[in-house]
Design brief:
34% helix; Nucleotidyltransferase, domain 5; ATPase_NBD; alpha+beta; Actin-like protein 6A; single chain; Actin; four-stranded antiparallel beta sheet
Amino acid sequence: MSEVQWTTRAKRKKLTELMFKHYNITAFFLCQTAVLTAFANGRSTGLILDSGATHTTAIPVHDGYILQQGIVKSPLAGDFITMQCRELFQEMNIELVPPLPPT
């Protein structure tokens, strides 16, 4: 199962207990998403950039391990960029028209 880089030890422990006790699994493995992203691209070392709606994160991965002290989070992400583009288009009097649905 994958987990985000900032999952607390308490949450990880609770999830592990839930998987063993409630679902009666015999084995369980948690891996952080940045490490999985690096491996999916054939690398064990790299800088993973994850940008979503609310924040962007840069996560350094070295030999399959996350360098926790190097993680950088920024509020500059999809929602903010969308808002800035919308304001720019309004200032330039550019009307955004959504595409028509396929027929």
